[in-house]
């Protein structure tokens, strides 16, 4: 296993790829949006650590107090994403990244680490069975299939903000999103175009401050969808999924 890992910094951010979408020359709106978002978050203690290679091998986490998720707790880290793909799978990279996060948390005197999970594994969420091997356990739930997993060092536990279970009154398709994920920009345009073409009412709500993120009416990792007043998913989706959803 290659142990050449690097952390993104304000100094190297413009030159390094961000793993999810690797481009050397041709610009991609999602990448530029992600890097702009990261440029502010890195000042807050946000960590993006990746293998120094052209591959998807990385972990992204932040102090819970400044993490753009409706989760509250004292002195925790929040893991947004831990992702290893392709030829790098099964070689110990995920283990190395998780161990780095745990060691970093302990070194900084954190109370623990948490992440979004689900009763049944869902797409676009880190592998919770893998996290549980390190001692992560469910500490809160939404009642809609999502859980908060935590690895506690001192017996304390974070929890979902009360507003997570609040819901919304609107019946139209409603999408809350931020630009933390480079795939979001393209998905938002897909939804916008489809709804315009099919005269489907839609509200696309950009989450552009920490305060808005903490006050969201649903679980959120960078994306949250409601339809007909009910929470649907934290997953990004394509036109086929959207067509089936609006047909219900």
Task: Outline the structure in words.
With 248 residues, this protein is of the alpha+beta class. The protein has two domains: 5-160, Gcn5-related N-acetyltransferase (GNAT) (Aminopeptidase), CATH 3.40.630; 163-247, Glutaredoxin (3-Layer(aba) Sandwich). Helix content is 25%, strand content 27%. It is built from six helices and 13 strands. It has helices at 29-41, 93-107, 128-132, 184-197, 210-214, 239-247; strands at 5-7, 47-51, 57-63, 71-72, 76-84, 112-118, 137-141, 146-152, 159-160, 173-177, 202-206, 223-227, 230-233. It has a seven-stranded mixed sheet with strand order 1-2-3-5-6-8-7, with helices on one face. The protein has a four-stranded mixed sheet with strand order 11-10-12-13, with helices on one face. A two-stranded antiparallel ribbon has the order 4-9. A hairpin with a 5-residue loop joins strand 2 and strand 3 (57-63). The longest helix has 15 residues, at 93-107. It is globular. The mean pLDDT is 92.
């Amino acid at each position: 296993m290659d142990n050449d890992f690097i952390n993104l910094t304000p100094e190297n951010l413009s030159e390094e790829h961000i793993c999810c979408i690797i481009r050397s020359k041709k610009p991609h709106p999602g990448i530029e949006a992600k890097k702009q978002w990261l440029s502010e978050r890195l000042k807050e203690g946000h960590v993006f650590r990746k293998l120094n290679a052209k591959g998807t091998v990385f972990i992204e986490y932040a102090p819970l107090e400044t993490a753009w998720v409706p989760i509250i707790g004292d002195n925790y880290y929040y893991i947004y994403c831990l992702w290893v793909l392709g030829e790098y799978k099964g070689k110990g990279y995920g283990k190395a990244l998780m161990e780095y996060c745990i060691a970093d948390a302990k070194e900084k005197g954190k109370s623990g680490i948490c992440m979004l999970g689900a009763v049944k594994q869902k797409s676009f969420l880190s592998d919770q069975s893998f996290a549980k091997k390190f001692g992560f356990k469910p500490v809160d739930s939404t009642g809609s299939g999502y859980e908060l997993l935590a690895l506690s060092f001192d017996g304390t536990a974070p929890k979902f903000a009360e507003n997570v279970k609040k819901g919304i009154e609107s019946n139209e398709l409603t999408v809350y999103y931020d630009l933390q994920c480079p795939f979001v920009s393209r998905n938002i345009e897909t939804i916008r175009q489809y709804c315009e073409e099919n005269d489907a009412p839609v509200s696309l709500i950009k989450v552009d401050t920490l305060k808005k993120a903490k006050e969201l009416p649903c679980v959120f990792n960078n994306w949250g969808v409601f339809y007909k007043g009910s929470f649907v998913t934290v997953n990004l989706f394509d036109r086929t999924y959207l067509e089936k959803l609006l047909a219900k």
